[in-house]
Amino acid sequence: MAAIPSPTWSAFRLGPLTIHAYALCILLGIVICIWLTSRRWRAKGEDPERIWDIALWAIPFGLVGARMYHVFVTAPGDYFGPGRNPVDALKIWEGGIGIMGAVTLGGLGAWIACRKMGLSLVKFADAAAPGIIIAQGIGRWGNWFNQELFGKPTSLPWGLEIDPMSHNFPTQYPPGTLFHPTFLYESLWDVLGGLLLLWLSRRILVKSGQVFWTYVMYYGIGRFLIELFLRIDESDVILGLRIHVWTSGILVLLALVMLAVVSRRRPREPQDHGELTA
Asked: Which of 16, 83, 240, 261 gives a 20 to 30 Å CA spacing to 39?
């Protein structure tokens, strides 16, 4: 049966250091995001070097936010309660981050940086949105290396193989079961969304804030559908639904409201029409 194999490794040693594939995926995503955002920032008539200054605030805040979201929203039971050690919440190298927390707290870091430099946070958010979602798509490949966050069993030819000896393999299924590669679905959704935002930002989304809130809505829809119909990994449940179904649904509603608000603004300044599209 055709299938997508999972990697036999997720990390390698370089002298005294352990290099995790997930970390490399995240790092590659960050580099591409900064590069693309710098190009779009220059096209807006701004100094591209400022993007690095903003990144020095946004990236550390984003990493903390990503870990906090995992610890307090996704899997609080792994760190708090009988037999658990809250100190484990600090061990980010053992895995566990959440993109929703990364964007939220990373946005706070970007706001601080923009405020210090007298820059428009909204303008920066519009410039960064395509790069952020493309970076998310690249980062999702880290889940493939870790053999985690896959979906329900499937007989489709692109089913994902998971090592039966992996601690992530669901014990209720027999060895050899194939699963939906939700990492691949979300990665393709995100990269396609980034390209779509680049195109829309030149032709339709011409008012400040529209690109960013379209990104939030688009990502929220994709995450909502995957969480609702495919994901089977353990998650807190509220009123019969996975907690990420609720958080992504709230994101979509918030984005729709904010899009209605920002769409009443005047169009962006003319130089924005020269933004990078590819």
From this structure: 261
| Residue 25: count of CB within 10 angstroms of its CB | 22
Amino acid of residue 131: G
Report pLDDT digits (tens) over 66-82.
Answer: 999 888 888 888 888 88
Assess whether pLDDT exceeds 80 at residue 2: no
pLDDT at 81 (0 to 100): 82
Contacts of 216 (CB under 8 A, 6+ apart): 251, 252, 254, 255, 258
Instruction: List alpha helices for the chain, DSSP H.
Output: 21-43, 49-69, 99-117, 121-139, 141-146, 182-203, 210-229, 243-262
pLDDT of res. 269: 53
What pTM does this model have?
0.90
HSE at residue 75, side-chain half, CA atoms within 13 A, is 15
Tokens of 232: 């089977």
Instruction: Report the chain's mean pLDDT, rounded to a whole number.
Output: 90
Distances from the Cα of 226 to the Cα of 34, 73, 130, 182, 216, angstroms: 27, 18, 21, 7, 16
Task: List the one residue out of 92, 183, 197, 74 whose CA is nearest residue 138.
Answer: 183
Give the count of beta carbons closer than 10 Å to the beta carbon of residue 123: 21
Dihedral sign for Cα 143, 147, 153, 159, please.
Answer: positive
153, β-bridge pairs: 179
Residue 237 above 80 pLDDT? yes
CA–CA separation, 38 vs 131, rounded Å? 10
